[in-house]
């Protein structure tokens, strides 16, 4: 059975949704830039040898719809390259890496691009979950139960299945976190301390140049003559949080 290894990686800077430095970038343009950067690190690779482009996208609709994986392949001039778009919300690109691993292990191919993108700032153009009246009525009572619980403070939580009722499949991650905190006894203080520690470690890694090997500067539509990375702006945000 063949082994699978990651031979090149690249990432974009991260900006603030709707008002950050990347808010005017399209998801396909950004993703194409990052993929091309990763490929440039392996000059001996013939693009014709790539078997598939697997793109993870949390909410693949609007500008991020129409099988964005294939759109990006053609955009990069790789018309020969098939592409697929996978959603598993926050772990969508992890899923594409898993799929690429499985494909290599199964002997289905030798070279795969595993990528991921989610441009929240572009959700104003629509997303896969934005259409009204699309939820299954089966979950109506469960959604009402979630809404009522969100108004409560300190209420305990247990699995609705224990009461023989349907859980809320449409529940948001924010409310899920609230329920888990109540179920596991995690306090707000503990969560804040963990969050601040994480941000401080990320800031230190940025200062030490750890991210320089991965973060790729991108050109924003409003500053075509001055390509820049938003890493510094993001660091300022970390300092504000720490304060």
UniProtKB/TrEMBL annotation:
Low complexity composition bias: residue spans: 217-233
Residue ranges with Basic residues bias: 234-243
GO biological process terms on file: fatty acid beta-oxidation; phenylacetate catabolic process
Region Disordered, residue ranges: 217-243
Domain Thiolase N-terminal: 5-228
One function term, GO molecular function aspect: acetyl-CoA C-acyltransferase activity
UniProt feature coiled coil, ranges: none
InterPro entries: Thiolase-like, Thiolase-like_sf_Thiolase, Thiolase_N
Keywords from the named record: Fatty acid metabolism, Lipid metabolism
Protein name, per record: Thiolase N-terminal domain-containing protein
Source organism: Streptomyces microflavus
Organism phylogeny: Bacteria, Bacillati, Actinomycetota, Actinomycetes, Kitasatosporales
